[in-house]
Amino acid sequence: MQKTHQIYGIRAIIEAIDSNEEIDKVFVQRGLKGDLMRELEHLLRKNEINTVYVPIEKLNRLTKNNHQGAVANISPIRFHSLEEFMGIIERKEGSALILLLDQLSDVRNFGAIIRTAECTGVDGIIVQKKGAAPVTPDAIKTSAGAAFKVPIIKVDHLKDAVFYLQASGIKVVSATEKTNNSVYDVSFKEDTAIIMGAEDRGISPSILKASDQLAKLPLLGEIGSLNVSVACGVFLYEAVRQRLND
To answer: Strands (DSSP E) along 104-232, which ranges?
Structure first.
């Protein structure tokens, strides 16, 4: 059942955290003081909830209600832990196909990627708790409901997830222009995790270094890159093509 997408007010957000609600992001008024605010900030840090400090004008745009200096986005879906997800992967038949998103922040790109992931049989999407695009109504709409079908896994650090996958026998392939290897020269037939980076920064250097293989898309025009959701679709459908022909 779909939950309310937004709550407002410091006390209400504290109660939501204490009730283990799936909170994607909290917007806090910059410079706000007081005992209740300190309690909220303590809970946000303790639970490693994505927090952004903004001017009051931003909060006023987010809600017409009395926000009291804080607005929270509540996820309409339940997130999975990496350990829980890997238990599912170990029991499945056939090769696993997993997607990791490194600091992707645009909710519409996120939604489009979730939709493509569902259509290409991706087993799960791994994102970092901090800095990742939230699962908002816009993301749900763009995904055409696929966000309710594809497991989304939140981790503290994406690099640790890479090491965990590799230790489980899963090959990690990063999509980047910083290589001479083409996506069409990479085998996706075995258990594989594909990493896509944010449009402005790409994949972080430490994650690129930890990857098993790097691959890029051939670009024949003058523009130097594709939209990340489009690039992700090409990678995923190359995996589908190889597995259907296997």
So the answer is: 124-128, 152-155, 171-175, 192-197, 213-215
